[in-house]
Amino acid sequence: MIKMKVISRLGQTQSQTQKLKMTTELRQSIQLLQYDIQELNEFLYETSLENPLLKIHENISDIKRKKKSNTEQNIFPEDNTATTLSLYDYLLEQLRDCYISEGEKKIGEYLIFMLDENGYLQQNIATIAELLGKSFDEIEKMLNLIQTFEPVGVGAKDVRECLLIQLKRKENSGLAYLIIDNYFHFFITQNIKQLSKKLNVPFSHIQQAFDEILVLHPKPGVAFSTKKDIYVIPDMIVKREEGEFVVYMNGFATPKIDINEEYSKLLDVERGEVAIYLKEKKQQVDWIQRCLMQRQQTMKVVITEIIKKQQDFFEKGSIYLQPLTMKEVADAVGLHESTISRAVKNKYVQTSFGTWEMKDFFVNNVSQERDEATTIQVHHLIKEIVNNEDKLKPLSDQKIANILKDRYDIPLSRRVITKYRVQLQISSSSRRKKYG
Q: Which CATH superfamily is domain 365-432 in?
């Protein structure tokens, strides 16, 4: 059995007299449903910039990321590396130590949250200035400040700028800086001979400059998020208690907002345009609160139905996943298939067998070669087989196919195994081979 409350359908009742308004709000509500936790926090932060009544209780920089593991491990938030400092936390700590105005700090926070996992800011400064209602110079000033933070090179727009930022901080790096600044293509192609001729500099000096560049970090953010330790935020946690599966919303992944009391006091005393403005902003906060609640309820309904249809997985593990489509879940809970798709997009669930992306529970049949097996089951088995192989004698795709047939009675061709191995980003046997 699964314990949870039944909820009402998204956007079930709409007033005919408010059709235009509700259509706009419904569209925005749907957007909130498909946001992952980072996108949701970015939306709330951006909204708070122009709505003084919106107060965000949870400091989004305090959200720690949970290790994603689709293995047979029992990993829960309280006993893993949830205290690992993220790139965003590290940069925000440095920002807080800067003697700048609150307005500048808000711009800095926004820029930090716009960085990708490599530490790059790929969004155009002019676009950010327009979005925040600030001048180009204000945004550029804060970006220049962030580019002085650690790790060195953070805040660059691309690899070239990242390397230049690092070289600026090093002594006696004039030639290396010149090469990256004006002859980046020669560095990428490692064309020492032509560069030496063009700059009239000895080969040895060019090689020395290349060596200096090669020890830099082209992706400074990667140190905080590697392929070995990928951290995600589980939106929900599924636990078995007294024989029943219980669904909990993860508090770390549930933004809490409220009305800012300092401004709400003005609602009773202000008149005229100010009163109208404050009333509109309060209505916006009320609407966002309703949308956040609806978002949680919809996600709970979906995962609850998934648990019903994938009960063997939640009891025994990933090998017992069954074929399941979003349409099946949509029909069962009375929602549109597109709503199910939005509800599971980039959402994660903590289970007794690791943290899983919700879309992973929707699996198709592998092929006509074996209808009973599912793609994700085979992916899991291939990873397990490769992880346990003798690294001095790695298994060929044909041998992996033979193991699947002999050990698990899953007949798949070598061609299919190769396709899945590539999808899993597993190198060929020749590249996996270790030499003592």
A: Homeodomain-like (1.10.10.60)
